[in-house]
Design a protein that fits this description.
Elements lengths: L1 E4 L2 E4 L2 H11 L9 E3 L12 H8 L8 E5 L4 H5 L4 E7 L2 H11 L4 E6 L2 H23 L3 H22 L10 H12 L4 H10 L4 H7 L6 H14 L5 H11 L5
Parallel strand pairs: 3-4, 5-6
Antiparallel strand pairs: 1-2, 4-5
């Protein structure tokens, strides 16, 4: 689980996250909705964040679940720069309530019932950003980056639909929007790691002196496993995995 507070990123192994939530669950007031703002997939189980929440919370729908995801660098949101994101919730009444509660003058939320699609897009865009950064680090130019973004979106969409998502979700904020942001801006941690790998640095060297977390480095392991599980063709994901974990030359 990854949580951002005042620009500081705290990384907690999934087993610790599960332990904390298990202790917290009995004390949550009945009916209080929970919003996941974590973009990731548990590597060991291939579970989405809402799957983990459902597994650990009391049964019976006592806590409606929602997901917040989209193109939103935290520093820009914090200083009040305009941003728009997706809020996914299967219960439209709860979704509207959360939309009203979380919307500000500069932070706009668009609701959708596609909880799976929003989570898949939010997690896998980090993997494609590693590829885009690597391409830029190798000096391949804007054409190659655009191709990686476009074909990366196709891979994310194929996997998401196989997992039960709606295809149109991936043309929205939590799909295309978040992907473009993460693949093209210097604020993107995943693009930065990919760029440095393209420049010839090793992953071990980068991660040893990095002051940030690049979620895609872990997520690519889950994405690679999911592509095998659902028999979905994902060549970009496969090659990012090969570069990071099999020693392949970028």
């Amino acid at each position: 689980a990854v949580a951002g507070v005042d620009g500081v990123i705290l990384v907690v192994p999934s087993n610790v996250f599960r332990g904390v939530l298990t202790r917290l669950a009995p004390h949550l007031p009945v009916g209080v909705p929970l919003v996941s703002a974590t973009k990731g997939i548990e590597v060991e189980t291939l579970a989405l964040m809402t799957d983990i929440l459902r597994d650990l919370l009391p049964p019976g729908g006592r806590h409606p679940l929602a997901v917040l995801s989209g193109p939103s660098f935290a520093a820009e949101v914090a200083r009040g720069a305009p941003a728009a994101v997706a809020l996914a919730c299967r219960d439209p009444r709860v979704g509207r309530h959360l939309q009203e509660a979380l919307t500000t003058e500069t932070f706009k939320l668009f609701t959708t019932p596609d909880v799976i699609g929003v989570q898949v897009g939010g997690a896998l865009k980090n993997v494609i950003a590693l590829a885009a950064g690597g391409s830029d680090g190798l000096g391949f130019g804007a054409n190659a980056r655009a191709a990686l973004i476009t074909r990366g979106l196709a891979e994310i969409s194929r996997l998401g639909v196989a997992m039960g998502a709606q295809p149109w979700t991936f043309s929205g904020l939590s799909g295309l929007g978040d992907l473009v942001l993460t693949c093209t801006d210097a604020q993107s941690r995943n693009h930065t790691v990919g760029y440095r790998i393209g420049q010839g640095e090793t992953l071990d060297r980068i991660m040893s002196d990095a002051s940030f977390v690049a979620e895609g480095v872990v997520t690519v392991r889950a994405a690679y496993a999911l592509s095998r599980k659902y028999r979905v063709l994902m060549p970009i994901v496969e090659q990012v995995y090969a570069v990071l974990y099999e020693g392949k030359d970028p």
